[in-house]
């Protein structure tokens, strides 16, 4: 997906690696039955993305207990960084010798859940780029399906791969082969979102699917990192994407919605857009009322509150940069799947605004005032100190390299 989705270091945490072999034995034993049965497609459609080896992986059992979530979208399978046509996690960890991700899957299945695996993502080298044709690309992905007994797979087709015509032909062809060779396999295709639904490369990908006669369970767009502002902009893009699906495949609006999915980004996006819990609820209402096929987000690694909650106006791969209770956003996936999330404490409130200083003992910041090094002001419930001369630079909006030093809450 987008830049934060490319933070693939390829190394599991020490605890996860240490637990790998033990959990793998128990997990595969329990997972063999659960994996064979799988979950209903609605759960695979609701599975949020999770990086199991990087970005401070959260405890999947804790998420399941707190939210009722049953399905996880594990990311990302790529080609080896050194070249070749064999599947790896993040370009560095071969699937063939993996025990760490297998342990995570075993733990999830032991609690009655299951996983889908996402291939591709933003950045990195994709198997469709390295493998010589659709058949060899499919053979590489079949290794992943077989090893983890998968009932679902996601093709995340975006930059830079979706600009490569041959690579997209390989990926779409591989998806079609896997669909044929694995009866009942849930297949989603995810691509970039734009205001008019998806961009030129996304439309070319859809045309390739039409040419090859391939129809997945859904085509999903990611309406973020493209100048989106809240739910209204996202639902507008989904409406426009529906029209794109209609015109490409000759579907009715209802049929197009039944093959359409949403993949959001919780909290602050890479480009500084903000998507709150209220935005997720609004898009969820749109998705369910229009009979859409998928509702997911990037990512569970980010579905927890930063310290401070706004993360000083920056985007993180391990927290959302908005006030929230842990796993707030996962609960919208649970609702889409048709389940009722367990009760939890209400989300945290943002710091109170203090236009007149509030409980701070220093003067409130003013856009027209001139400040010099050492001057202190109050703004949005925090106390700030100027590092150098400034005027009309709002505290908290320019990150750690800005003029204002955050001295904490008042």
TrEMBL record:
Q: Where is this region: Disordered?
A: 338-361
What start and end residues bound the annotated signal peptide? Answer: 1-17
Q: Which Pfam families match?
A: CBM_5_12 (PF02839)
List keywords of the entry alphabetically: Hydrolase, Signal
In terms of SMART domains, this protein maps to: ChtBD3 (SM00495)
- Name all Chitin-binding type-3 domain ranges: 362-407
**Annotated Pro residues bias:** 342-354
Q: Does the keyword Signal apply?
A: yes
Which PANTHER family does this chain map to?
BIFUNCTIONAL CHITINASE/LYSOZYME-RELATED, GH18 DOMAIN-CONTAINING PROTEIN-RELATED
Listed name of the protein: Chitinase
Organism of this sequence: Streptomyces xanthochromogenes
């Amino acid at each position: 997906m987008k830049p934060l989705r490319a933070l693939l270091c390829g190394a599991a945490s020490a605890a996860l690696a240490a637990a790998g072999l033990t959990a793998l034995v128990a997990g595969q034993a329990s997972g063999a039955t659960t994996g064979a049965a799988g979950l209903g497609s609605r759960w695979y459609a609701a599975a949020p993305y999770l990086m199991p080896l990087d970005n401070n992986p959260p405890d999947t059992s804790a998420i399941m207990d707190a939210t009722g979530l049953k399905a996880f979208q594990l990311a990302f399978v790529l080609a080896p960084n050194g070249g070749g046509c064999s599947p790896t996690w993040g370009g560095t960890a071969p699937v063939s010798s993996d025990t760490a991700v297998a342990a995570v899957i075993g733990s999830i299945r032991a609690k009655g859940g299951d996983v889908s695996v996402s291939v591709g993502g933003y950045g990195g080298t994709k198997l469709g780029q390295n493998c010589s044709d659709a058949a060899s690309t499919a053979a590489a992905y079949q290794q992943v399906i077989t090893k983890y007994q998968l009932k679902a797979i996601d093709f995340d087709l975006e930059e830079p791969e979706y600009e490569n015509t041959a690579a997209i032909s390989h990926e779409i062809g591989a998806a079609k082969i896997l669909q044929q060779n694995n009866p009942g396999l849930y297949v989603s295709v995810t691509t970039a979102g734009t205001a008019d639904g998806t961009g030129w490369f996304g439309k070319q990908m859809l045309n390739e699917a039409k040419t090859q006669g391939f129809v997945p369970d859904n085509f999903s767009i990611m309406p973020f990192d493209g100048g989106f502002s809240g739910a209204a902009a996202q639902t507008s893009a989904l409406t426009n994407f529906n029209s794109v699906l209609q015109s490409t495949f000759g579907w009715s609006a209802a049929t197009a919605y039944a093959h359409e999915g949403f993949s959001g980004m919780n909290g602050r996006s890479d480009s500084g857009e903000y998507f709150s819990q209220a935005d997720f609820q609004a898009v969820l209402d749109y998705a369910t009322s229009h009979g859409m096929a998928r509702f997911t987000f990037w990512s569970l690694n980010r579905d927890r509150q930063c310290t401070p909650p706004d993360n000083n106006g920056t985007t993180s791969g391990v927290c959302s940069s908005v006030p929230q209770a842990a796993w707030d956003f996962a609960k919208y996936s649970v609702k889409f799947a048709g389940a009722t999330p367990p009760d939890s404490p209400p989300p945290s409130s943002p710091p109170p605004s203090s236009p007149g200083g509030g409980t701070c003992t220093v003067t409130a910041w003013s856009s027209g005032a001139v400040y010099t090094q050492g001057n202190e002001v109050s703004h949005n419930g925090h106390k700030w100190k100027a590092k150098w001369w400034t005027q009309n630079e709002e505290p908290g909006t320019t990150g750690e390299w800005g003029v204002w030093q955050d001295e904490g809450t008042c």
